[in-house]
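Design a sequence for this backbone.
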């Protein structure tokens, strides 16, 4: 009975904390996915500092799904119409596995690199692997090689199970939110003390380097195996 009462009390306290944060959350505009008070607090700290130093609002929206077959771009446009002043909106839709960034006015795209943030490749090695696997023309190869430095999709693409899935979402979206915030701040000549900083990004780059090195080695073994198999077939 004591454990049951404690569990109920803890659950009530957790619900109260989450509800309070949700009521006061401004830059984590909506969160139907992570629902973690610490995550909310970190997003709010970065968003508030960015707004105070640059006048630009950076919103993060995390949805389970969209209503009435609405597209992610239509949702962002509708949301931006409701916001006041300059705003950048990062939207993640879990069931559709989609991520997008909308800036209004469009001149705000000059303050950050949308293609880099949303690149599926975290490192140049990843871009090389993508080029080898997917490029069909020289233009495809050129575009893929120039597309790296992603801070959201490479993390969301990682395999996870159970509670690790939500953790993956929180890490990926926090990383991307921090990246956009830092780029906007840098474009205005200011720095953010509350963001992730280059340290965490360097750590992630190292992990991606190891990851893609393994992929490259596996690709090399596969190609070599196919080559030797053909040679053996011809010799027979």
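Sequence:
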């Amino acid at each position: 009975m004591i454990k049951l009462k404690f569990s109920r009390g803890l659950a009530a306290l957790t619900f109260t904390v989450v509800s309070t944060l949700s009521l006061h959350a401004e830059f984590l505009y909506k969160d139907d996915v992570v629902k973690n008070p610490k995550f909310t607090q970190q997003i709010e700290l970065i968003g508030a500092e960015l707004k105070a130093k640059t006048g630009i609002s950076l919103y993060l929206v995390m949805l389970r799904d969209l209503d009435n077959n609405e597209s992610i771009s239509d949702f962002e446009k509708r949301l931006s119409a409701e916001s006041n002043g300059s705003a950048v909106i990062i939207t993640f839709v879990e069931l559709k596995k989609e991520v997008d960034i909308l800036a209004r006015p469009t001149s705000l795209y000059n303050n950050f690199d949308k293609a880099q943030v949303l690149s599926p490749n975290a490192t140049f090695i990843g871009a090389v692997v993508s080029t080898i696997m997917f490029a069909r023309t020289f233009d495809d190869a050129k575009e893929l090689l120039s597309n790296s430095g992603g801070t959201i999709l490479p993390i969301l693409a990682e395999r996870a199970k159970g509670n690790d899935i939500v953790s993956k979402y929180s890490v990926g979206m926090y990383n991307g939110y921090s990246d956009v915030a830092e780029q906007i701040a840098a474009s205005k000549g200011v720095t953010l003390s509350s963001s992730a900083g280059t340290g965490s990004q360097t750590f992630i780059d190292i992990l991606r380097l190891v990851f893609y090195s393994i992929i490259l080695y596996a690709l090399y073994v596969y190609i070599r195996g196919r080559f030797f198999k053909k040679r053996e077939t011809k010799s027979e």
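The longest helix spans residues 197-235.
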